[in-house]
Specification:
- It is a single chain.
- The strands form 3 sheets. The protein has a 5-stranded mixed beta sheet, covered by helices on one side. Strands 1-2 form a two-stranded antiparallel ribbon.
- The protein is globular.
- The protein has one domain: Glutaredoxin, CATH 3.40.30.
- About 30% of the residues lie in helices and about 30% in strands.
- Strand 8 and strand 9 form a beta hairpin.
- It is built from 4 helices and 9 strands; from the N terminus they run E-E-E-H-E-H-E-H-E-E-E-E-H.
- Helix 1 runs parallel beside helix 4.
- It is of the alpha/beta class.
Length: about 160
C-alpha cells in the first residue's frame, strides 16, 4: 500500500471513464487536479460528495482545476450514477482496483464486526506539475468540497 507525501509525483493512470471516455492523469498536466476516491456509486455519502463537487465545478474551473472521481464501479455504473443525479464531474472506473491500491486507499475495512476490502474515502489535490499538494484521508463529506476549493484557491 502506497503512502504519498506532499511533493511526491502522483501516479499516472488511464482508466475507462463515464460516457465512453478515457480518463488519464497525464492528460490533465498543466492544470490542478482534484482526485476524489470514493467507495461506491449511488450510496448516500458518495452521492452527497459527488453532488457537492458537481455544484462547485464552475468555481473549480474558474481556478483552472479539474475534478475526477474514482471508484471500483464500472463505467456503465458511472453513467447511470451521473444520469440519475445530474453529476458534472468526470468519473473513472477502476474495476481492477490497481490504481486505488496504488494510491493506498484500497484497504481492509470493518463494519458491524465484519472485515472486508473497500475504498477509504480520500481526496488528493495534485498540482499542475503532477505533484501532490494536499491529501485528505478518511474524508467526512459535509463541507469537504468547499474545503478542497479553498485549498485550490490558495495553491494558485
Amino acid at each position: 500500500m502506497a503512502n504519498f507525501n506532499i511533493g511526491d509525483t502522483a501516479p499516472d493512470f488511464e482508466l475507462p471513464g463515464d460516457g465512453g471516455t478515457t480518463v488519464s492523469l497525464s492528460a490533465q498536466r498543466g492544470k490542478q487536479v482534484v482526485l476524489f476516491l470514493y467507495p461506491k456509486d449511488d450510496t448516500s455519502g458518495c452521492t452527497a460528495e459527488a453532488l457537492a463537487f458537481s455544484a462547485l465545478k464552475p468555481e473549480f474551473e474558474k481556478l483552472g482545476a479539474v475534478l475526477i472521481g474514482m471508484s471500483p464501479d464500472t463505467a456503465r455504473s458511472h453513467d447511470k450514477f451521473k444520469a440519475k443525479h445530474d453529476l458534472t464531474v468526470m468519473l473513472a472506473a477502476d474495476e481492477e482496483k490497481k490504481v486505488l491500491a496504488g494510491y493506498g486507499v484500497w484497504v481492509e475495512k470493518s463494519m458491524y464486526g465484519r472485515k472486508f476490502m473497500g475504498v477509504e474515502r480520500t481526496t488528493y489535490l495534485i498540482g499542475a506539475d503532477g505533484r501532490i499538494v494536499r491529501k485528505w484521508e478518511k474524508v467526512k463529506v459535509p463541507g469537504h468540497a468547499e474545503e478542497v476549493l479553498q485549498a485550490v484557491k490558495s495553491n494558485r
